Structure formats: structure tokens, C-alpha cells
From TrEMBL:
Signal peptide: 1-30
The name this protein goes by in its record: Uncharacterized protein
Region annotation (Disordered) ranges: 29-54
Organism: Rhodococcus rhodnii
Biased composition (Low complexity): 44-54
Protein keywords: Signal
């Protein structure tokens, strides 16, 4: 594929990459792990946090840090993309969760594979990452009971974990992304989930707009599509599993979150900054 072909595809890739931002961008944290192993190590965990007035840890927002996570070496990629969620709202049944600025980043390449008389567009994450996803933890408002309590005894941290590689369609700006949502506090333990690798929360995301691009600047090649809006109202959320000893608190999580929650009762809206570059511009010479 020629350099001119790569460049001509930047705009549609920008629209596709915008949809990547939704892949759980809001309710959580996905630590970097080996692809296919969402229970792996914590290489993507935050390096620093501060504490707000409530005593809850406040993570520093994720930022654009170049093209180091686009696996261009030895690959015939069309573009590299990085998507950073800048805020929004997620609703699961009766649970509303604000999406913080810089809560999720998706980085990787877009590979074009010949498929008969057409091209199949495939998102390819860098090796050693959790399907190209890095995100920061957030606290569910109201915790376990829907109200804040002294000393944050009922505080719940939510984490999104990708359980598969996204399926993307660049020209239609669509993405299908399987995830599971991990909920943690001292009572729930370390194995409390909404969704699983075999029964995931499947986000089917589409960009609702593609704003004008502008140069990234600062000596970095590529363009950014700022404040790109997205939405998804089609995903369903399964009932809780593994919450508390032997799953004894599954009922409490289901009561609090309104799960299982079928399609039509859940929504995700966000805006993101979408960074794009033709892969040949950042590939090793």
C-alpha cells in the first residue's frame, strides 16, 4: 500500500478510532496485560495518585504520549491511532457513573487485510498490552448502598477489562468490543465481575460525528480530531458473579447495579480526542 493510500485513509480511520474510545472508557481501569490474559500483571497500573477531599484516590488523567504503542516494526499497517476519553456518562440499569477526563486510552495500529475484492480493517494492539487499552480507576458514586458513608467504608472501585481484541470497520466507524467490569472493595473481594470472557459486556460503538482535524504540533507528526462524540445504547450487562465469599454477595451487587440489565436499559456517551498518523511516518527506517 502506498504512502498516498495511507494518507487518504486518515479521515475514516479518525472516525473509527473515535469509536474505540468507548470501550469501557468510563467506568474503570484496565491494567496492561498480555493479550488474551486479562488476569495478567499490573504493568499498566498508575504510577502516581493523589487524594481528593473525600479521601478517595484520584488518578492523574491519561495523556497522549506519542506513537510508541503502535506496533509498526515489521508490519504493513495503514495508520496508528490513539484515543483518549475526555469525559462523559455511563448508565448500567439503575447505576449512573460519571466518566472522568483522561480515564481511558486506546493505542494501536490499523492493519488493512485484503478480503476478496475489498479490504478488512483490523485493530492490532501492541504486544504486552491489555488489547491496547490503558485506563484509570474511578469510584462509583454512593458506593455499595447508593449513599456516601463516613471513612468510605462502602466505597466501590470499578475496573473495565477487555477480554478480546476489538472488531472494527473503519469506513462505517463501528467497533465491537467485549469487556468485563470488575467491582472491588473489602467485602466484594477480588473476583467480583459483571460479565466474563464467555459472557462479556459487548460494546457496539459508533461515532456520532467526526470533527475537523488539526496538527498535533510540538514536533509530533500526525493529526488530532478533538472532542469527537460517541454513543452506545445497545449493550446488555449480565448478572454479577464471584462477589463475596462463594458469590454470597452477588445479590447485593445485582440490587445496587440493577443487573442483569438487558439492551435498551444501558447507555454510554463520551467525547474523546482521537490522534492519527500514517504508519509509514513513524515506522522504523
Amino acid at each position: 500500500m502506498t504512502a498516498g493510500t495511507f494518507t487518504s485513509r486518515l479521515a475514516p480511520v479518525g472516525a473509527m478510532a473515535a469509536t474505540l474510545a468507548l470501550l469501557g472508557g468510563g467506568i474503570a481501569s484496565a491494567q496492561d496485560q498480555d493479550p488474551g490474559s486479562p488476569d495478567g500483571g499490573a504493568s499498566g497500573s498508575l504510577s502516581s495518585t493523589s487524594f481528593g477531599s473525600s479521601g478517595n484516590p484520584v488518578a492523574e488523567p491519561l495523556t497522549f504520549d506519542g506513537w510508541n504503542r503502535c506496533p509498526v516494526a515489521g508490519q504493513d499497517f495503514g495508520t496508528c491511532v490513539t484515543v483518549i476519553v475526555r469525559g462523559g456518562q455511563m448508565k448500567i440499569g439503575g447505576l449512573d457513573v460519571p466518566i472522568p477526563d483522561g480515564s481511558l486510552k486506546v493505542s494501536g495500529g490499523v492493519n488493512y487485510v485484503e478480503d476478496g475484492n475489498d479490504w478488512k480493517d483490523v485493530f492490532v494492539p501492541d504486544a504486552g498490552t491489555n488489547f491496547g487499552v490503558t485506563s484509570t480507576p474511578i469510584t462509583i458514586p454512593g458506593g455499595a448502598f447508593g449513599i456516601d458513608t463516613p471513612l468510605n467504608l462502602t466505597q466501590i472501585q470499578a475496573t473495565v477489562e477487555a477480554v478480546g481484541t476489538p472488531t472494527v470497520n473503519v469506513l462505517d466507524a463501528n467497533l465491537s468490543m467485549p469487556v468485563r467490569l470488575k467491582l472491588q472493595n473489602k467485602l466484594l473481594g477480588n473476583n467480583c465481575y459483571l460479565g466474563s470472557p464467555t459472557n462479556p459486556v459487548t460494546l457496539n460503538l459508533a461515532s456520532s460525528g467526526n470533527p475537523r482535524s488539526q496538527p498535533i504540533g510540538g514536533g509530533t507528526v500526525g493529526a488530532v480530531f478533538p472532542a469527537t462524540p460517541h454513543t452506545d445504547t445497545t449493550f446488555a450487562v449480565p448478572a454479577a458473579t464471584g462477589c463475596g465469599p462463594l458469590g454470597s454477595l452477588n445479590w447485593a451487587v445485582n440490587l445496587r447495579a440493577g443487573t442483569p440489565s438487558p439492551t435498551g436499559r444501558n447507555s454510554l456517551t463520551a467525547t474523546s480526542d482521537v490522534y492519527n498518523v500514517a504508519a509509514y511516518e513513524v515506522a522504523p527506517s
